[in-house]
Amino acid sequence: MKHTFFLAASGMGSGLTSVSLGVFRALDRRGVRVGFCKPISQEAGAGTLLDPSSEFIARTTGFKPAQPIAFAEAERCVRQNQMEELMERVVETVRSRAADIDVMIVEGLLPTETQSFPNRINRAVVSALSAEVILVNSYDATKPSALQQSLELTASLYGGWRSPNVIGCILNKVHSVPDAAIPGGSVIGEPEEGANAAPEFNEAALAELQQKVVAACPIFRSGCFDLLGCIPWNPELPSFRVSDVAAHLGATIINAGEMEHRRVRSVYLCARNVPNILYLFHPGALLVAPYDRLEVFLTAALATMNGVPLAGIVVTGGEITNPHFLELCRPAFALGLPVLGVPTTSFVTATALSRINNEIPADDTERFNTTLDFIARRIDVAKLQSRINVELELRMSPAAFRHQLANRARLANKRIVLPEGEEPRTIVAASICQQRGLARCLLLGNPEEIARVARLQGVKLDGIEILDPVAVRERYVPALVEARKAKGLTADEARECLEDTVMLGTVMLHLNEVDGLVSGAVHSSANTIRPALQIIKTRPGAKVVSSVFFMCLPEQVLVYGDCAVNPDPDAESLADIAIQSADSAERFGIPARVAMISYSTGNSGSGAEVEKVKAAVVLAKQRQPGLLLDGPLQYDAAAIADVAALKAPGSPVAGRATVFVFPDLNTGNTTYKAVQRSANVVSIGPMLQGLRKPVNDLSRGALVEDIVYTIAITAVQATQTA
To answer: In the chain, what percentage of residues exceed pLDDT 90?
Structure first.
C-alpha cells in the first residue's frame, strides 16, 4: 500500500460518506488499485454487520472491506485512556485488506454536537496510518468568507493546512442559495405558489462559482492546498424513499404501495383548504396531514389516479377508520400510493421529518450508484494521481510499529524465559502475552508464590509455564561448568551461580531450551547482561554489546542508542553502536537515517567529545558505505527540518533522522528518560544488540506495557538470530 487518503468532514451534513465512496469510484475507474476502509463505524449495531459504506463497496465491487470497530467500543477505549490499543486495532483493520492495494481510502468519523472525541480519534488515526488528509466541506455561496475559516479550523486538527499531509479539500453540496429545511430539496410547510424549493444548479454556474471560490480563498492559491473537487447541490439526484421515512418515524403502514421505490423530493404540511394547496400535488411530494382532513386524502387519490406520482401521504394524530372512505381510495392504493400513519401531531411529525438522516442506506443501491457517479465525475482525479505518483518517505507510526511487532511475535511463537517470575508486573505481562499470543512465557520462581501474586493482581495463569528453580537447578550445573571451563569454574561454584535465576535462565537459553530471556524489573542492567556476556557471548562481527530504545513519539517511532550499556564508548565502539542500531531499526521496519549526536553540528564546535563523534562517523562510513549516516549533529538539527536547513544544509540525515546515536551513556540515558517522562511516551526496551541470542534488559521502573512489548521484541529477535 503506497498511499492512504483519510477523508475528514468539517461538520455534520457535509456528505462525508458519499464523497469518500465517490473518491473510491473515481480512482477505481482510472485503473488505480484502490481499497476502502471505515475502521470505526458510527452506525447502530456496528461490529455485527458491515456499516453502509463498507457493505455497498462489498456488494458493488470486487473489494471486501474489513469489518469496522464498533463505535461504542472506540468510545470505551477513549474513556479508559486506551487510545494506543485502539489505534493498534485500527491499523490492523486497515492493513488486513491492504494486500495488492496502491491506495486506501479511509473514511473518518463525523463530528457530532454532543461528542468531542470523534475528532480526537480522527487525529490519532491519521497519525497511526501516516495518512494524507482530504477535508470534506459543504459550501454555501452566500457565505464565502466562512469557507476559509472552516477549512483552517478543521485543518488545524491535523497540523494545519500548510502541513505536508493535509493536501486539500473537496467541496460538496455547492449551491448559491441556502439549504432547504430538509435534505433532498424538501420543504416543511407550504411554500408560496410557484416557489421553487430546490432550484437547479447548472454546470456553467458551477464553473463560475468554482473560480470565485478559488479567488475568494487564499488557502487555494497557496500552492500547498488544492481544491480537489467541487460537487454541486443537485436536486435531481435521488433522495430518500418513503420506506426510509416509515423507518425514521416508526410509522404504521396503512398502504405500502411502492414505498420501496418512490422518492421524496419535497415534504409539505397541509394546513389550508384544498383549493389553496392544489399546486403542492406534484411528483415526489410527501403530504403530511391530520387524520380528519379527508379532503386532502381524496385529492391525493384523485391526483394519483390522474397519473401524478406523489411520494406518499403521512396521516398524523389518529387513524382513518371510515371503511367507505378507504374503499374510495382503493384505486389509488392499487396504483402504488404509499400511506403511512403516526400517532404524533402534524407539527411534531414535521419536526421529526426535518431531522431525517440523509445518509444513504446500505440497501439503496440505486441512490448509491447515481450519487457516486455524479460525485466521481467531479473529483479532480489528475491531482489525486499526482499525489499517488509521489513516493512518500516512510514514517513508522507508534500504532503501526506495535501492530507489526505483535503480528511478527505471534507468527514467531517463541518460548521466552522470565527469571523474575515472582515479580507482579512480570506476572501480569506474562498473562497478557499469553492472552494475545505474543509469546510462550516461562516464569522462573516458586509456583505457590507466583499463584499468590497472580491472585492479588487479578490475572489468570492458564497456559503459562512455571518452573521452580530450586527443583531444576542441579541439572544445569554440568552445562554451566562446561560453558565456563576456560575460567576454571567448579561444580560448587556453578551451583552457587545458578541460585541467581537470571544465570539459570541464561543457561537455559544457551542450551536452546528457550528462545530468549527478559529480565531487569528488579535486577540491575549489569545483573542481566553479565551472564549473557559470560555464556551467550557476542555474535560474529560485533565489537560491543549495546542497546536501543524504540521511542514511540506521537508522530513516529525513533530509535535511541546506546542508552543502557556502554558508559563511555571510544570512537570504534561508537561506530559499531551506530551500525548495530541502524540494523535494528531496519529489522523492525524503520528506515535507518542515523544521526551521530553531539553538542555541536558539523565543524561548529571542538573538543575531545566532538572529535570522538567525528572519528566514529568516519569509521562507520568506512565499514558501511551505503549507510545513511551523518554527524556530529545537535539533536535539534537532527530532528527538526527548519533547524537542519540552517545548521546542516545538504545533509542527507539532518531534519529527518530516525536513529539517534548518543556519544555516551550519560547523554543517552538522560535524554531517553527525559523524553519518555516529559512527553509521556512509551519507550520499548532496552533491546540488547550484539549478542548471539536475544537477552533483553528492562528498566526497573518499567510498566507492564513496557514488559509486554519487550517480550514481543525478544520473540521477534529470536527469529532473526536463529
So the answer is: 39
pLDDT at 683: 82
**3-state DSSP assignment of residue 637:** helix
CA nearest to 615, candidates 627, 598, 628: 598
* Omega prior to 191 cis, within 30 of 0: no
What pLDDT was estimated at residue 603? 80
Q: Give 178's pLDDT tier (boundaries 50, 70, 90).
A: very low
**Rounded Cα distance, 206 and 204, in Å:** 5
pLDDT at 47: 42
Q: Above 80 in pLDDT, residue 479?
A: yes
Helix, strand, coil % in the chain, rounded to nearest 5: 45, 20, 40
Q: Is 360 helix (H, G, I), strand (E, B) or coil?
A: coil
Cell of 511: 542450551
Is the model's pLDDT at 186 over the cut of 80? no
- The pLDDT assigned to 141 comes to 60
* CA–CA gap between residue 539 and residue 544 (Å, rounded): 9
pLDDT tens-place string over residues 625-639:
999 999 899 999 999
Beta strands per DSSP E along 112-238:
132-140, 166-175, 226-232
Residue 248: phi and psi, rounded to 5, are -65, -40
Task: Write out pLDDT tens, residues 561-584.
Answer: 899 889 999 999 999 999 999 999
Crossing angle of helices 398-412 and 704-721, rounded to 10°: 60
Please work out, in degrees rounded to the nearest 5, the angle formed at the alpha carbon of residue 246 by the alpha carbons of 271 and 201: 70
Give the cell for residue 389: 505518483
ω before 562 within 30° of 0 (cis)? yes
Reference 362, options 101, 46, 10; nearest CA is 46
Q: What is the pLDDT of residue 323?
A: 82
Please, what are the domains in the chain? 3-35+48-63+100-179+198-238+365-388 (3.40.50.300), 242-353 (3.40.1390.20), 402-537+691-722 (3.40.50.10950), 544-688 (3.40.50.10750)
* C-alpha cell read off for 161: 493546512
250-264, 475-489, 677-691: least confident range: 677-691
Q: 535: buried, middle or exposed (CB in 10 Å: 19+, 13-18, 0-12)?
A: buried
What is the Cα–Cα distance from 14 to 502, expressed in whole angstroms? 60
Structure-block grid coordinates of residue 311: 411520494
**100 vs 39, 60, 97, 377, CA distance in Å?**
19, 19, 9, 25
> Rounded to two decimals, what is the model's pTM?
0.69
pLDDT digits (tens, 9 = 90+) for 49-89: 457 778 878 877 778 888 899 888 999 998 888 888 899 89
- State the Cα–Cα distance between residues 668 and 311, nearest whole angstrom: 72
Residue 669 burial (CB count, 10 A): 21
Q: Residue 492: is its pLDDT beyond 50?
A: yes
Q: Which helix (H) or strand (E) holds 506?
A: helix 501-510
Which three cell numbers mark 251? Answer: 410509522
Please state, as a whole number, how many other Cβ atoms lie within 10 Å of the Cβ of residue 324: 6
Residue 362 in contact with residue 52, Cβ under 8 Å?
yes
Q: Rounded to whole angstroms, how far apart are CA atoms 349 and 343?
A: 9
SS3 720: helix
* Residues 6+ positions from 602 with CB-CB distance below 8 Å: 632, 633, 647, 648
Mean pLDDT value across residues 516-521: 92
- Cell 503480528, residue? 407
Average pLDDT, the chain: 85
Report the alpha-carbon angle 318-321-324, nearest 5. 145
User: Above pLDDT 70, what percent of the chain?
Assistant: 92
Burial grade of 628 (CB within 10 A; 0-12, 13-18, 19 or more) = middle
Contact criterion met (CB below 8 Å) for 257 and 312:
yes
Q: Do residues 296 and 288 lie in contact, with contact meaning Cβ atoms separated by under 8 Å?
A: no
